[in-house]
Structures are given as C-alpha cells and as structure tokens.
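Incident log, structure service

09:12 report received: a user says their structure output differs between two submissions of the same chain.
09:20 pulled the input from the user's history:
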Amino acid sequence: MSFCTAVNCIDGRAQLPVINYLRTRFSVEYVDSVTEPGVNRILAEHGGGERAACVLRRLEVSMDRHDSRQVAVVGHHDCAANPSGRPSQEQHVRAAVRLLRERYGHAEVIGLWVDEHHQVAEVA
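09:34 re-ran on a clean worker, output below:
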C-alpha cells in the first residue's frame, strides 16, 4: 500500500479534487487527510503554536504509521477560516510548505491551490 498526505482545510469542496490530484501526482493508492479550518494560514502564521502542533502531530501519524513521504499543503477559494484572497493564501501555502520542508527534510512537500471551479494547481 502506498500513501501520501493532504494537509487541507475541512471544507468538503477541497477534499475530492485534492485526493484525485494527489493520487495521480504521487502515484499512490491512498491519501491521508489532516484537516483543520484554514490550515495553510495556521501553519504559516503560527508554526510554533498549539493548533499548528496538533496538525503536525496528525501529520506525523501518517508519516510514521503509513510511511507517507509526500505531503501537500492546500489553500482554496472561498475559505471561511482564511477569507483572504488568492495571493495571500498562496503566500500562506508557500510559508507552510517551507515550514514542513524544514521540519521533515525526508518528505517531498508541495503546495496546492483549489480554485472556484475545483481545479487544482501547484503553487509551491
């Protein structure tokens, strides 16, 4: 079995497009989901805070127990918990990607954006 991990918002509109994209992008069977409202902003702005620590602990379960070595951080259009526009959200995604790359050097970490048409694009 092969796994990767999506660090994504809880918004259901962003779930299936990301899962489908990652299964193809990383050639994996399964995509573990670590979800938190506005997770890209949480990791970007509060990388050392308790909410970020909770996200990181969940990510580590996926990495340790499912041997996930590919991770995607996701931002999406019309996020209720991170209502900033796409340029700001993409900055949050990039900062979150940097944080995860520094912390988990053995993993391939990418950043994704899900637009208003549920299309996925790599931004980092």
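09:41 both user submissions now match this output. Likely a transient worker issue. Closing.
09:42 reviewer note: The first strand starts at residue 3 and ends at 8. The chain is about 45% helix and 25% strand.
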